[in-house]
Write a structure and sequence with these properties.
2 copies of one chain form a homodimer. The termini of chain A are far apart. The first copy, chain A, has helices at residues 17-30, 43-49, 60-65, 83-95, 107-122, 149-169, 186-190, 214-228, 267-279, 301-319, 346-349, 369-375, and strands at residues 4-9, 37-40, 52-54, 98-105, 128-133, 174-179, 204-206, 231-236, 283-286, 325-334, 337-345, 392-393. The longest helix of chain A is centred in the middle third of the chain and has 21 residues, at 149-169. In chain A, strand 4 (98-105), helix 5 and strand 5 form a beta-alpha-beta unit. Chain A has 2 domains: 4-134 and 298-349, Rossmann fold; 149-295 and 356-379, Rossmann fold (3-Layer(aba) Sandwich), CATH 3.40.50.460. The first copy, chain A, has 394 residues and is of the alpha/beta class. At the A-B interface, strand 3, helix 6, helix 9, strand 9 and strand 12 of A face strand 3, helix 6, helix 9, strand 9 and strand 12 of B.
Chain lengths: 394, 394
């Protein structure tokens, strides 16, 4: 009876998802309990199609290169798994002699992994399942934070920091920067790390967790303009109005992903129009979008470390005979940073969304100090130092 | 009679405009011909208001930090200079004992510098003027390339490269990336550097130089989807239709800058809507915007070098008694890269816009090889290596 391992990626890629794959391969190679290391192309969709590649003999140089290659090197998918699909998944497991199944992803993927685990428990299939957490949205429960978040947080905070310097030097009064995050505002919140001095961007932060009241927003922009002469806003792509509708014109449109979630985008454009039309002030928007989750240059070293560790832990977990858990992260050291992997039942993790808690929030103008305490280490180090000229009167 | 130098920045900042300021300060300090080094805050607008700071005694550590600080450390402006303004400019020159005036900017700023020079020639004022070229748009004539372009080119090409990897790994079929550039498509063109293998992004490139015919665009996307299953488009923010109108909904709106130029933005959003509505295919857009000209991390070392050199050359030029020139760049070596500064008359440079020439273009699917020959060195080095797994059949 072969003891093959199958790994697959679900949902949106990150700058470090390949680091977890690196961890899986390295640990599986070192283990005496894995015969062949297989990867499904494009996630569970690849499992269903039997589109599987064998990485057992992949050259070490290429495996090492996974650590510095963005997006998913084995592809990903947003396929919503149906009841009938589970039969075909287990057919594939049988065909490829899969004993270990590792699914790397966010909420939807952990739900899929949980159902595969349940099905294995309910049948005679000797398949052990583990979930590897991954989401730039940082919205998985039962983990201190999610691999992928720290790097995207560093990207968007660094981007808002650069944007703030630009807006300060050339007076376009208002700029709205759209930050990824559909339902949880962790990434928009993280842009607060760009602030070092009074008057630094972002001046206002809008998360999906708190409704945006148009009149309040315009007042806040107006007040910021009066105080600083400029206003940089970090707005989550999932920002909503009082009725729960997205501010985005895209929401409710024809564009939905495989889970029926609307494709986000357009919030910043709408908010910039509000400012231009209602305040009569020049406003522009920036929407870095997907590159924000794919930048190797802007990555967090903490994030790289954690992504590798959860990948390795998943292999150890299933080869030790365990099944049905996601590899949660527990923070156990602050200086230097240290973490433990703490398995959490997939049944608890699945489909629970951890949004930014109230104690981390502090209105539109900022985040609570407790949030910066939470965030700091995840950014993987300070930003490059930018100077300001002192000058003397001429 | 004091021999003070006044430097000012006009137009959009870049990732290296402060490098030119560094060059100016370092060269002026080394020169025996400059008494005080003054900088106007927010460009010619600061000159008009007498808002001038003295950088003569700025600590060297802060001056050194200019090389790694984005945006304009002395501020910039888009003020359109009127005839009456020139009297006030010369009043300010007299008040601050200005003998040397250096204006760093693009087309509009070179026009301003030229008029200041002409006014000095026509009067008894002993003021010598030089222009320091700077624009991410790369559209100044009488120079091989413009400081600021190489870094923004590296940013947008690297961004499209990351985007391409993401789109390849997770099948959102179409992504439109909006690239800065109002009237000249140099930056959108530069994203072609992201292509290493067949099927790599960008699959299509649209410049303002060539009209976008909607039906042709949709056919090109459709054909790309048939061939590769995905399509990443790099579209210049200044992309226009057959009638010369911007594709952007923002064009013609109330948002205009101080020169009456419409504020660009929105092209990618429009093109993504076309794809979703007409082809029935999921499409998203990214619009990195201003951070694309402000990223220190993504900068080109060639660009840093050139920006410093043109700043230094401008000081040497005016202290040698010359006036009325922009410090053009001549490329004199390819391996290793070498350049000379070649002064060009401001009267010729002013208001001439150098667009992407026909011999660099090759239709929507790419750029001519001659363009890559032109671009390569300006990017300041290769991109980080990304791997692709080989895998074997399972």
């Amino acid at each position: 009876m072969a003891r093959n391992l199958l790994v697959a990626h679900g949902g949106g890629p990150t700058a470090v998802i390949n680091c977890s794959l690196y961890g899986v391969i390295v640990e599986a190679r070192a283990s005496g309990d894995v015969d062949r290391i297989l990867a499904a192309r494009h996630g569970i969709a690849g499992v269903l199609k039997g589109d599987v590649m064998d990485l057992t003999d992949e050259p070490q140089q290429i495996v090492d290169g996974l650590r510095t290659t963005p997006a998913s090197a084995v592809g990903s998918c947003r396929h919503k798994v149906t009841d009938e699909d589970y039969d075909r998944i287990f057919d594939a497991f049988e065909r490829f002699d899969i004993k270990y199944f590792l699914y790397n992803g966010g909420n939807d993927s952990m739900d899929t992994a949980n159902k595969v685990h349940q099905r294995a428990c309910d049948s005679s299939a000797d398949v052990r399942v583990a979930g590897i957490p991954k989401t730039i949205d940082n919205d998985l429960a039962y983990t201190d934070h999610c691999p992928g978040f720290g790097s995207a947080a560093r990207y968007f905070a660094g981007t808002v920091r650069d944007l703030g310097r630009d807006i300060e030097s050339l007076p376009t009064p208002v700029s709205i920067c759209e930050v990824m995050g559909r339902n949880a505002g962790w990434l928009a919140a993280a842009t607060v790390a760009a602030r070092e001095d009074d008057g630094d961007a972002p001046h206002l932060i809008y998360l999906p967790e708190t409704p945006v009241v148009k009149s309040d927003f315009l007042s806040a922009v107006d007040n910021t303009l009066k105080q600083w002469g400029r206003c940089v806003v970090a707005a989550s792509e999932g920002a909503r109005d009082e009725t729960g509708n997205s501010l985005s014109t895209a929401e409710g449109g024809a564009n939905v992903d495989g889970f029926g979630h609307p494709l986000p985008g357009g919030v910043a454009s709408v908010m910039a129009d509000w400012v231009a039309q209602e305040l009569g002030v020049r406003a522009r928007y920036e929407k870095p979008g997907i590159p924000g989750r794919a930048s190797i240059l802007c990555r967090s070293e903490t994030d790289v470390h954690d992504a590798i560790e959860v990948g390795r832990a998943a292999v150890r977990h299933v080869t030790a005979g365990e099944s049905g858990h996601m590899m949660g992260i527990e923070r156990v050291g602050e200086n230097p940073y240290a973490m433990n992997v703490v398995p959490a039942p997939l049944s608890k993790v699945a489909n629970v969304e951890r949004r930014v808690p109230a104690e981390f929030m502090a209105g539109a103008s900022g985040m609570a100090p407790a949030f910066m305490d939470y965030l700091r280490l995840l950014l993987g180090g300070p930003f490059p130092q930018y100077i300001r000229l002192t000058g003397s009167p001429a």
